[in-house]
Amino acid sequence: MRVVHIVSSLQVGGMEHFVVRLAAAQRQQGHEAAVFALHGGPLEAEARQLGLPVTVIGGAHKLLRVPRAVAYFLSTRPEIIHAHNQTSLHYAILGKRTCQAPTVMTNHGQGLGSSRTPSQAEWDQTDSVVAVSNAVADLMDRGVLGTKLETIYNGVTFAAPARTRAQVREELGLPDDRVVGIIVARIDDFKGHETLIAALGELKAAGQALTLLIAGDGARRADREQQAALLDLGPEQVHFLGFRSDVPDLLAASDLFVLPSLTEGLPLSVLEAMSHGLPTVATAVGGIPELVIEGVHGRLVPVKDSAALAQALGTLVQNPDQRRAWGAAAQRRVQTEFSFDKMTQEYTQLYQRLLSARKAKG
């Protein structure tokens, strides 16, 4: 099966990582999966290392991108065109008009308030719309999409760390007995870093010993570093690590995961942390409550509430038995309900249904 995955860019992000992993898994299963991106980014090299054919059309204007895209679809003749988020749907529809392939769009829950709203004609030509959580599906127009809309939960594969917990902690200068939290997310206006750093300030003032690892980069990094400095948060409280390729190692060296996002779809970062047996403190937004059950796998707090976030984190800092119990429950849930193989199989079954329906129509 020839499948083309379309993304707006190959910048580092949860959705972009998801696409690369899904396409790579499909190639391992014998499908001819490829990635088509409007703009490049750091993940292009990773995708190529995995053996994925990657095409970046670039171009500052649609007048350049459209003919390049048409030429690509004519040369590759995909059997399935899979767009990821609304920003790339226009090009998926262009591909469908060019080679009559069924079109799928997965809404990863990012940019739900985006200015890029598909037209009625685009929705009409989209054969299937997948939401990564029921919360994302509920935000979409069921009246327009009807039976085209379904939910396929994201899945993850456990990525074993390459180094021991002790080795990573030694590199970072973290004592063995220090409670360490971690957030893995782009530093922007939507992942809640501002609230999180404020909560760290409250924990320090209360004498709570927690060190936070911030793995990720982004446009707001300098602002958050300045905020941390103003709160007199030093290396004992926070480490800004930037982009890291050793996230499994960092998770293995941590005791809890935190994600106080303002909006989410079904965050892969939470799934990955759960797969490593970490309890999660997160906001009750998007599909997060579909992953993390309050009091079973972690704690859920309101958006932009640093006091509630500090209280939830402080409770886990003081209670190692609860951290271990919630982390073990989280790991079991991911293994049974959110496996990468299960998710990949569901997408393959969807593709096959669409191809069968197309064949039946003649």
Automatic annotation (TrEMBL):
<dbReference type="InterPro" id="IPR001296">
    <property type="entry name" value="Glyco_trans_1"/>
</dbReference>
<keyword id="KW-0808">Transferase</keyword>
<feature type="domain" description="Glycosyltransferase subfamily 4-like N-terminal">
    <location>
        <begin position="12"/>
        <end position="156"/>
    </location>
</feature>
<dbReference type="InterPro" id="IPR050194">
    <property type="entry name" value="Glycosyltransferase_grp1"/>
</dbReference>
<dbReference type="Pfam" id="PF00534">
    <property type="entry name" value="Glycos_transf_1"/>
</dbReference>
<protein>
    <submittedName>
        <fullName>Glycosyltransferase involved in cell wall biosynthesis</fullName>
    </submittedName>
</protein>
<dbReference type="InterPro" id="IPR028098">
    <property type="entry name" value="Glyco_trans_4-like_N"/>
</dbReference>
<feature type="domain" description="Glycosyl transferase family 1">
    <location>
        <begin position="167"/>
        <end position="332"/>
    </location>
</feature>
<dbReference type="Pfam" id="PF13439">
    <property type="entry name" value="Glyco_transf_4"/>
</dbReference>
<dbReference type="GO" id="GO:0016758">
    <property type="term" value="F:hexosyltransferase activity"/>
</dbReference>
